[in-house]
Amino acid sequence: MTATAPTTQEFLLTIDDYYKMAEVGIIPQDARVELLDGKIIHMSPIKSLHASKTDKLFKILVQTFNDDYIIRSQNPIRLHKRSMPQPDLAVTTYYPHEYTEQHPEPEDIHLIIEVAQSSIYYDTGRKLKSYARAGIREYWVLDLNKYNIRVFRQPEGEQYLFEEIIGENGVAKCETLDFQLTVEDVFG
After folding, report:
1. Do 170 and 181 touch, CB atoms closer than 8 A?
2. Burial 6-34 (b: 16+ CB within 10 A, else e)
3. Is the C or the N end of the chain the one with fewer CB within 10 Å?
4. pLDDT at 67
């Protein structure tokens, strides 16, 4: 008689499962988590530099776009039935309902910006793949470790065909919106 390896199954959560877990207290209300590709991901605490740069970018985006778009800061977006990440910033289409019935979906999203310090590998790895798969047209990562802006465009499969690293004295130019950001604007 030969031994067989036990079979294992991985259960992936839907957004509905995720909400139900929060409703019954399995996920505490103050938990720093997000749902990505069916898995609950623990997010690292927000350090002061990260918070400061996110606030600064939020202010720049609001001043630039006024009421033409809705700027969301650390609020959920819905990529598909198993992914509801909470990007640091998302520039979304303005609707009078202001997303009271559902979170923005990929077709509503013009730009996502993640501010990365301890999360740099997650934001440029697993999260990038998820955004690309969902068809997010433009994705920027503000790298607080290297003081640059990484610009990703043209999603195809799990990757972006275009990647540019904007360093000192450089300018990140958004193709989905009339918007540009200098490295000095953020780090100066």
Report:
1. no
2. eeeeeeebebebbeebeeeeebeeeeebb
3. N
4. 86
